[in-house]
Amino acid sequence: MSMVLEGIQFVTDTSGKQKAVILDLERYSEIWEDIYDVLVARERENEPLESLEDVKKALIAEGNSAAQ
């Protein structure tokens, strides 16, 4: 049984398999922002981490006095 939700459309391939979704952003913009944030976080999860102190030092070295 499939549910029909207003403002959500699925794109299917020739065999009927769902491949993508279209969201009405006027209706679901907050949900989309949450989804997007999760996707960005997952893309960045293996990036090397920097300490706050190292970031501050780099900003100060670049002449950004607001980092002090």
What does this structure look like?
The chain is about 45% helix and about 15% strand. By secondary structure, it is of the alpha+beta class. The chain has one domain. It has a two-stranded antiparallel sheet. The chain is elongated, with a radius of gyration of 21 Å. The model has no long low-confidence stretch (mean pLDDT about 90).
Précis, in short:
This protein is α+β, with helices and mostly antiparallel strands and 68 residues long. Helix content is 44%, strand content 16%.
Number of beta-strand segments = 2
Distance between the termini: 59 Å
Query: How many domains would you count in the coordinates?
Result: 1
* Major beta-sheet overview: 2 strands, antiparallel
Widest sheet: strand order?
A: 1-2
Question: What's the shape?
Answer: elongated
Estimate the mean pLDDT confidence. 91
What value does the Rg take, in angstroms? Answer: 21 Å
Coarse structural class? alpha+beta
User: Which stretches are low in confidence, meaning pLDDT under 50 for 5 or more residues running?
Assistant: none
Contiguous helical run count: 2
Order of helices and strands: EEHH
